Amino acid sequence: MKVDKLYSQPSFKPFTLLIIFVLSITMIGLLIFQYQKNIILKRSEDNLASIANLKIERIDYWLDGLQRDAVIMSEDYYLTYMLENWLSDGAPNNVNRQKILHRLKVIQDSHQYAALTLLDLDGLVILSTNQNIISQPDELIQQQAIDVIRSKNMILGEINLGQKKTLRMAMLTPLFVDIKGTRQIIGVLYFRINPEQFLFPMLDAWPVGRLSAETLLVRRDAGEALYLNEVRRPKDLSLTMSIPLNQQDIPGTNAVNGKTGFFRGVDYQNIPVISYLAQIPRMGWGMVAKIDEAEVYAPIDRRARQLIWMGGLLFLIVTLATFLYIRRFSVVELARIQADKQLKKSEESLRLLVSSVRDYAIIMLEANGNITSWNKGAEYITGYAFDDVNGQYFSCLYPLEAIASGQPEKELQIAREQGRFEISGWQLRKDGTRFWCNTVITAIHSSHYEVIGFAQITRDISDQRHAALLRAESEALRHASKMKSEFLASMSHELRTPLNAIIGFSEVLKDGLVGEISGQQNKYIGNIFDSGQHLLSLINDVLDLSKVEAGKMTLDLEKFQLTSLLHDCISMVKEKAMSEDIDLAEDVPDDLAFMQCDGRKLKQIIYNMLSNAVKFTPKGGKITLSARRIFRVEAVMVNKNKAWKTRLIDDVDSDQTNFKEFLEIMVHDTGIGISDADLNKLFEPFTQIDSSLSRKYGGTGLGLVMVKALAHLHGGFMAVSSAENKGSCFKVWLPWREISLKQESTSVKPLSAMKDNNSSFERINLSTEKIINNNNKVMPIQR
Q1: Of 410, 424, 333, 330, nearest to 369 (Cα)?
Q2: Dihedral sign from CA coordinates of 351, 355, 360, 362
């Protein structure tokens, strides 16, 4: 598709003209609309300023009138003369009192005061035109009267609420009289002014009909702006509505803070307003003349809505006409337009996809190999920003040895000839570190099949390479371990056959079955027999360990009477213990029930633990074998002596916690013990806790390893507690399998019929030339 020719078709000109027309009209309309709004705003601000200044002048005029009345009344000779005579007579209820009261009422009516009251020099009411004032004294007025007497000047008080929640304003002036040529104060005249009679109506008056316009008086009151007069909404809030001064977007708070001039903010109802702020310094009041922005802009908003409707209708008409005009063109051209849009959308999606990919470095190269494009993935993988590599040869990412060998040029040449080149190798980051990556270079051809550039996609596979190396190493280790196990098993079988013959014939010679031998010969034959027996035991242990490591050892579960089995194990080491003068005790309850277990492996566990105890217990020591049936929560190692340290070996797996009861087997000795540092060395194959022990006591270091392995094979675990030169305590816990439960096993057959050549106990019997009969008794072989 030739996009340039497609866009040059006449079908796209109406769209272009329509868009230009709509944008032009919209911009012109917005400019005119904003210009008109500025004019209306300026006109409204001028009106607010004029109204506010006019009302301030009227308030000043009203205050001047109050002060003139106060000055005139303070030196009214007629009033002060009658008052002096009346007070000198003791203020009786006589004609003078009535004249004074009449004089006060005349002044009150002529000047429209709420009440006039005479106060004595203590600020107490002595006469008033309002009887409520006499019956309900006001402490504030009394204090103000005393201040007037002290200062000898009039006081014009603040607007406040009276005792009946009525608005009032007080003006107090001293009354002077000449006594022997000296002006003296004989009382105070208290003018009660009702602000709702003149002040508030004057504030509410507005020269132009406005729904939201209002004038407000505010003053500071304990960190807040207190509204003195009524507000339009809500009503009845004079001297009760206040706003904290920290709300700087409220005109009232700014007026209280002394600001003047125009201010745009929100009113007490959070409605945007245009306001003019002014000050009345004489009273410490602030004035706010305001009007809602919505009402100011209402006319132009209506016109704007009308124009929008008209413009929208005109736009629809023009759009419809344009649509009808475009419909004349063929369906093929419309399909091309859609295809072009889809192509652009796909290109944009591809661009966004390429730029947002982080796992792959996507690099565009010129035909000569210089870098022209670089996505986020390339920045993330290499550490270079695009500006760092723009225009550089792409070999800047290769190690020096690759550059010296001409590797980058070879890659481009192969990609140019074959269209694609792929390689895995080292590249360099900005910080100089290397990373193993997979790189694919693809040639980009023009319409004439000329190479105009290359697309290089690089992926950091260092982690995969490391994982592959680890897998190969692990596989090699597993193979080596398998070969070791197979070699040990093969060698063990090969060595066991001649050893059995050596042991058997040496015992025949030892027992004198082929004739009498001398004492020295008997000693040598005994050494041969003991050495062959030790070597066979070592081979058996190695073979068993190999089977455990190979995972080929399984359980053969069968019903066993535990008391008898434990007693047999005691019998197997009793002779050796007696030869070492070791006391071998047994603490097994007679009522220990039957359970399912692998009898051979259980015997091997107990035998290895007892043999280990006999080996490391000196003469005169004591070894105790005990067993009991316990619950899972009781399977713990408790040390009564804090000097003994404990180590838990192979705790129960999650699947094995289904067993609620366990068989606990404990072997306690008074032997040489184990130090704290050597506890962690236990249960390692072919390892004893000290080389000197190996020389003194002998052994292969596999006995306890097999105990651990066989206990885990049963689904159990074990623990050891010991203190150096104090003794040791080994415990094994095996799951208690009831007789009724059918556990998985490879084969279940009588103990006497077991012929597993790999069983260490069968091999022990071969070495001692004894077998276990069906009654679990040890019998000598009849030759």
Answers
A1: 410
A2: positive
- Give the residues across from 393 on adjacent strands: 370
The vertex-557 CA angle with 552 and 563, nearest 5°, equals 125
Burial class (CB in 10 A: 0-12, 13-18, 19+), 384: buried
DSSP 272: E
Under DSSP, the state recorded for 777 is -
DSSP category for residue 393:
B
Q: Count of CB atoms within 10 A of residue 429's CB?
A: 14
CA-CA-CA-CA torsion sign (672, 675, 680, 686) = negative
CB atoms within 10 A of CB 337: 17
* CA distances from residue 454 to 312, 369, 370, 373, 441 in whole angstroms, order as listed: 51, 8, 10, 11, 7
Return d(Cα 56, Cα 431) in angstroms, integer: 76
* Number of neighbouring beta carbons within 10 Å of residue 671: 22
Name the 3-class secondary structure at 428: strand
Q: How many CA atoms lie within 13 A of 423 on its CB side?
A: 15
Residue 11 is predicted with a pLDDT of: 52
Q: Which of 94, 102, 128 is nearest to 85 (CA)?
A: 94
Q: Is 667:610 a contact under the CB 8 Å cutoff?
A: yes
CB within 8 Å of 266: residues ≥ 6 apart: 249, 250, 272, 273
Element (H, E) at 354: helix 331-356
pLDDT tens digits, residue range 397-455? Answer: 899 888 888 899 998 899 899 989 998 889 988 888 989 999 999 999 888 888 889 99
C-beta atoms surrounding 237 within 10 Å: 14
- DSSP 8-state assignment for residue 93: S
Q: Terminal CA-to-CA distance of the chain, rounded, Å?
A: 104
User: Which amino acid would we find at residue 532?
Assistant: G
- How do beta strands 583-587 and 622-631 pair? parallel
Tokens representing 569 are 């194990």
Q: How far apart are CA 723 and CA 42, in angstroms?
A: 98
Rounded Cα distance between 694 and 711, Å, is 25
**Closest Cα to residue 64, out of 206, 187, 171?**
171
Q: Where are the alpha helices (DSSP H) in 555-702?
A: 562-579, 599-615, 691-697
> CB neighbours of 162 closer than 8 A, spacing ≥ 6?
138, 168
Residue 691 is predicted with a pLDDT of 46
What single-letter DSSP state applies at residue 737? B
Phi and psi for 707 in degrees, rounded to 5? -60, -45
d(CA 113, CA 99): 19
Q: Please, which residues have CB within 8 angstroms of residue 758's CB and are 6 or more apart in sequence?
A: 543, 544, 547
Which residue shows structure tokens 């008086």?
A: 217
- Model confidence over 69-105: pLDDT tens digits? 888 888 888 888 888 888 888 888 888 888 889 888 9
Helix (H), strand (E) at residue 358: none
- CB count within 10 Å of CB 42 equals 11
274 within 8 A of 41, measured Cβ to Cβ:
yes
Which tokens in the block code for residue 483?
Answer: 């070969």
Reference 603, options 778, 721, 722; nearest CA is: 778
The pTM assigned to this predicted structure is 0.40
- For residues 597 and 558, the answer to whether their CB atoms sit within 8 Å is yes
Q: Are 751 and 778 in contact (CB under 8 A)?
A: no
User: Nearest to residue 371, comparing CAs of 346, 350, 396?
Assistant: 396
Region 640-654: mean pLDDT is 68
- Name the token pair of 482: 């398998």
Could you give the CA distance from residue 710 to residue 129 in angstroms, rounded to a whole number? 116
Contacts of 734 (CB under 8 A, 6+ apart): 597, 602, 662, 663, 665, 711, 714, 715, 716
State residue 376's pLDDT score.
83
**Residues paired with 625 in a beta bridge:** 586, 667
How many CB atoms lie under 10 A from the CB of residue 757?
A: 10
Q: In the numeric block, which tokens belong to residue 741? A: 């439960």
Which sign, positive or negative, has the C-alpha torsion 269, 270, 276, 282?
positive
